[in-house]
Amino acid sequence: MKLCASIEIQEGLSYPDTLSLARAAEESGYDAALLAEHYAASSGFPDRSASDAWVFLGALARDTRRIRLGTLVSPVTFRHPSVIAKLAASLDNLSDGRAELGLGAGWLEAEHEAYGFPFPAAKERVDLLEEQLKVIAGLWSGRTFSHTGARYRLRDCTFTPAPVQQPHPPLIVGGRPTSRRLPRLAARHADEYVVSLPTADECESVAQVLEGRCDLSVFTYACVAETEAEADRIHRRTTAALRPEMRQTKRWIFGTQSSAREYLDGMAAAGVARVFVAVWDECHAETIQALAACNRSG
Question: Which residue intervals of 28-180 are DSSP H helices?
């Protein structure tokens, strides 16, 4: 199984901190370093910095060599699809073909209210996501593209720069284990569907819906140490940056390397192709290394 570090830049990380974690992941053999995208800290702490993900990604493309780069995920409520297609294609050129684009329907209503972004009902946001996926794929097709949909209209669009990766950079859709429509949408329009904090049984159920038409991935948190006591200590130190409901470790990769290996084996057996691990603290460089050791030993 591939491992991917997801760098949570909205939780107070400066660019040097973000780069340090991305390089730790690159040096440990991780597949990608994807950035969460928020205008306000998802933890709910207003004093935590939420820097622009795409500015950071451009700098990471310059300052890393191999690791893949992108978002996990960009809410479709933030931008017109032509804008996000341009950002991702430009990153693909800047990084010599290392870009990935994660899209989601958006979930943090308070963030939308604070910054003036519309936050329609869930069905409308998923409709928006589906139409954006169609528009982005059309823009990246290399053909003159027109589109008339419920929300967007494009006419005779010649898109540049063409992505380096062909037919296009990987498209990732993010959702919950209980989402019903999103996995079907991902199977039709994306390369990968990533679910947040699922169990192995839930992954098996989602994999049945996907029917092998796109990859299944997992986003989770991790706290791995030599002993359970040390894992508990690290957990207490780092989880103040998380919402209370996210601090429960029963769906995490948690405990010793043996426990982590068991988690990874269970997810691989459930059909999971990749695990994204959230990192937001300097001590997570050690977690990255510990998980990489587990993955190599499996």
Answer: 53-63, 81-94, 109-115, 122-139
Q: Retrieve residue 250's tokens.
A: 């029963």
Contacts of 97 (CB under 8 A, 6+ apart): 163, 164, 165
Give yes or no for a contact between 81 and 132, defined as CB atoms under 8 angstroms apart. yes
Task: Tell whether omega for the bond before 73 is within 30 degrees of 0, i.e. cis.
Answer: yes
Closest CA to 38 of 77, 4, 81, 90: 77
Of 203, 221, 223, which is closest to residue 273 (Cα–Cα)? Answer: 203
Q: Locate tokens 């959702």: which residue?
A: 175
Q: 0.90 exceeded by the pTM? A: yes
Q: Tell me the per-residue pLDDT of 210-236, one tens digit each, with 9 for 90 and over.
A: 999 999 999 999 999 888 998 998 888
Domains recognised in the chain with CATH numbers: 2-297 (3.20.20.30)
Can you state the angle between helices 200-210 and 257-269, rounded to 10 degrees? 30
pLDDT digits 0-9 by tens, 38-82: 988 787 677 778 899 999 999 999 999 999 999 999 999 999 999
The contacts of residue 201 (CB under 8 Å, 6+ apart) are: 270
C-alpha Rg value of the chain to the nearest Å? 18
Three-class SS state of 110: helix
Average pLDDT over residues 102-121: 95
99 in Cβ contact with 55 (< 8 Å): no
DSSP 241-266: GS-GGG--GGGSEEESHHHHHHHHHH
The DSSP secondary-structure symbol of 59 reads H
